[in-house]
Amino acid sequence: MTRLIVAAGGGGDAVAAAMIHAALYGDEDQAVILTYAWDRLLIDPVPGPRGPDNFTGLQPLTPAVWAVPAEARPIAPAGSTLPRLAAELPHTFALIDPRHGVEGVTRQLEELTDRLSPESIDLLDVGGDIIARGDEPTLKSPLADALTLAACCQVNAPIRLLVTGPGLDGELPLDDLRSMLGQLIHTLTAKDVEPISSVLEWHPSEATGMLAATARGVRGTCEMRDAGLPVPLTDEGPTVHEVDLDEALTRNQLARAILTTAALDEVEAYSREICGYSEIDYERNKATWLKDQPPAQLDPDAALSQLDQFEAEARSRGVTHTTFRRITEALNLNGSLREDLRQLLINSRPQQYDAPLWRITATTE
Fold this sequence. Notes:
Radius of gyration: 20 Å
Strand content: 15-25%
Strand order of the largest sheet: 7-2-1-8-9-13-10
Helix content: 25-40%
Number of helices: 15
Distance between the termini: 50 Å
Mean pLDDT: 95
Structural class: alpha/beta
């Protein structure tokens, strides 16, 4: 039995899709996870999503859809987390190619549906920004979600929209999402996290990390991203809700506008018009800035001293947890040092590691 899960925004949505698949359907099912190859600049220094011609070793699933096996490799300077995901998880990861806009992604979905005859098709989003209007001041990355939403709404097959971890991506507050969340499908538990626990040790997704943490029982307030957004970790964090697909399209102005687009450039243009920006433009600007940064080195003593100061300030803001990305940014360290810093902190103060988050202690331990 094969199921198709579309990871709405790529990145951590693909990891969450693997967890949700096991939680909802069990280990016996096979799943194809259709996702973007679109990682942070730390992993992929080339702005925007990757297409099939940015990889070697892909396997054709249909004329327009390629699977990314463990042996696949991104062609330098591009990078991707997908081959490692394919190596560590039992799912088939297939590549969303957005270069031909919504028309292209719709064609990919239709070909996959014809080829697989899946038992079910789920469109999964962590956080809920897929049901954003597009003008929310806290919205940061609407383009990928809008593109997959628009495509799924045009496929002649029943597709269920699932939102998990409402509010955990820091883009839309939970209070703004509640009215759109439909039936509660499942509440994730620590047992549900087990299949992806090894992936959480290295994958940089903050939202999926917080989703896993809440499923493991972590509660409090987590600071994320470079801006230090405070995100509540509550009992609603590990929930999975169904959302009406047509209502989501009606609400999402960008998804409606791009329904007939045939190129990614068109999608970007609509994003600039409706949302006021394109996140690929942001990546282009940041990539240019990163090129001018000096080589990075980690001074362990200085980092731990800076961490003490950061934690004291975070406690005063009522923060109980944070992500390693946030700590890296707060200590003004180059993003390439994130993993070195993570290992330093876990080895130095293991009692503060609430995997995969960092716990801000009430007092210095």
